[in-house]
């Protein structure tokens, strides 16, 4: 995220999600977030709880490649697993990374 301040930052796009180990060893999602008005180099990983509203995340999950798995059921995902937008994965010609 751009430098911390009292400013409000707006999400341009979420292009990846990654499973990390959260408090107590519980799996949590973090999202690779691009910010409106900032270059891609300012993108950052943001925890789900830090999103104000879920519109950007709803769009991401509708366009992501999770196969037949439900992203709300983290038992189906491994720590370190990265989920990409279908179009990003197709551009790179790669599959899910684990």
TrEMBL record:
Organism: Roridomyces roridus
Source species, domain of life: Eukaryota
Official protein name in the record: Chromo domain-containing protein
């Amino acid at each position: 995220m751009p430098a911390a301040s009292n400013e409000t930052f707006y999400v341009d796009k979420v292009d990846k999600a990654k499973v990390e180990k959260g408090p107590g060893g519980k799996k949590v999602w973090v999202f690779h977030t691009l910010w409106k008005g900032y270059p891609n180099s300012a993108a950052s990983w943001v925890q789900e709880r830090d999103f104000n509203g879920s519109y950007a995340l709803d769009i991401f999950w509708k366009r992501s490649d999770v196969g037949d798995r439900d992203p709300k059921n983290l038992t189906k995902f491994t720590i370190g697993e990265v989920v990409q937008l279908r179009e990003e994965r197709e551009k790179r010609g790669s599959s899910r990374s684990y």
